């Protein structure tokens, strides 16, 4: 069975789009059953609708607590057939901290994409904070989610060089292109049940596919990226 997914967004939803595209291409064996946004105007919701995916807009302002909000999200996911242990939840630009109401319903099945090399530069301005700090390498991280912000066990990271004088606006798009590759890859490993969490460590079982990352037509040809574990064919 294709991995049932609920995808949580707050904004543009380009990471959601990367999931939809890889599913359509056949490299990601998943089905997005529901897209939830906490922002009514999020373009991610439009992307979902354009692809015939059920959507739900839930303003966190209508809830007395984070727990109550998460409880309603879990209920909506259940209604759409996204439950543990088969299903998984993707925080794809979802700007909310989640609680045990969600995490306990999906043990080791909630993943987040963050636009920096964690544990450096957590928070909502990862790209800009890294550029301002003057780091020479930044990147992005897909990790399992726990109760702390941008904190759980790391599944995959990709690194990009940072030029002196860059800011978040110039660095962000280069990082985003890699987000669009490592997030679907991490989800495919989850779909193939190849991820084991051991404390802070995530083991990726070597799979049947060759560990050979081919540059994608839409990726930066001039910026060789270090991605570890390596991307597999199709990502
Ligand atoms: C991405 O950079 C993601 O890492 C961060 O928010 C951004 C969302 O982009 N958490 P999009 O909505 O997927 O286009």
How would you characterize this protein structure?
- This protein has 235 residues and is an alpha/beta fold.
- The protein is 30% helix and 23% strand.
- The chain has helices at 14-25, 43-50, 66-79, 100-103, 126-133, 168-191; strands at 3-9, 30-37, 55-57, 88-91, 110-114, 137-144, 154-161, 195-198, 201-204, 226-228.
- It has an eight-stranded mixed beta sheet, with helices on both faces. Strands 8-9 form a two-stranded antiparallel sheet.
- β8 and β9 (201-204) form a beta hairpin.
- α1 packs across α6 and α5 (126-133) packs across α6.
- The longest helix has 24 residues, at 168-191.
- The mean pLDDT is 93.
The spatial strand order of the largest sheet comes to 3-2-1-4-5-6-7-10
CATH topology of the largest domain: Rossmann fold
* Radius of gyration, taken over Cα atoms and rounded to an integer in Å: 17 Å
CATH class of the largest domain reads: Alpha Beta
Cofactors and ligands present?
Answer: 5-O-phosphono-beta-D-ribofuranosylamine
Count, helices = 6
Mean pLDDT, nearest integer?
Answer: 93
List SSEs in N-to-C order. EHEHEHEHEHEEHEEE
Largest sheet: 8 strands, mixed
Shape: globular
Distance between the termini: 20 Å
Pick out the low-confidence regions: none
> Approximately how much helix is present in the residues?
25-40%
Q: How many individual domains?
A: 2
Strand content: 15-25%
Number of strands: 10
List the helices and strands and how they pair.
Elements: E1 3-9, H1 14-25, E2 30-37, H2 43-50, E3 55-57, H3 66-79, E4 88-91, H4 100-103, E5 110-114, H5 126-133, E6 137-144, E7 154-161, H6 168-191, E8 195-198, E9 201-204, E10 226-228
Parallel strand pairs: 1-2, 1-4, 2-3, 4-5
Antiparallel strand pairs: 5-6, 6-7, 7-10, 8-9
């Amino acid at each position: 069975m294709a991995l049932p997914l609920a995808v949580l967004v707050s904004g543009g939803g380009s990471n959601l789009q990367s999931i939809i595209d890889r599913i359509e291409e056949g490299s990601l064996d998943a089905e997005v059953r529901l897209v939830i946004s906490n922002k009514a105007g999020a373009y991610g919701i439009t992307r979902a609708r354009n692809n015939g995916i059920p959507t739900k807009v839930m303003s966190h302002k209508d809830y007395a607590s984070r727990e109550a909000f998460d409880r309603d999200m879990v209920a909506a996911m259940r209604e759409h057939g996204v439950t543990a242990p088969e299903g998984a939840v993707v925080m794809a630009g979802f700007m909310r901290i989640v609680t045990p109401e969600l995490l306990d319903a999906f043990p080791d099945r909630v993943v987040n994409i963050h636009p920096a090399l964690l544990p450096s530069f957590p928070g909502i301005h990862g790209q800009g904070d890294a550029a301002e700090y003057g780091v020479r390498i930044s990147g992005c991280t897909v990790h399992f989610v726990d109760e702390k912000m941008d904190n759980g066990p790391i599944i995959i990271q990709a690194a990009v060089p940072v030029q002196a004088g860059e800011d978040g606006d110039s660095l962000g798009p280069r990082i985003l292109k890699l987000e669009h590759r490592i997030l679907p890859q991490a989800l495919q490993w989850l779909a193939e049940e190849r991820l084991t969490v051991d404390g802070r460590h995530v083991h990726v079982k070597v799979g049947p596919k060759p560990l050979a990352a081919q540059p994608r037509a839409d990726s930066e040809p001039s910026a060789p990226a270090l991605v570890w574990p390596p991307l597999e064919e199709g990502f």
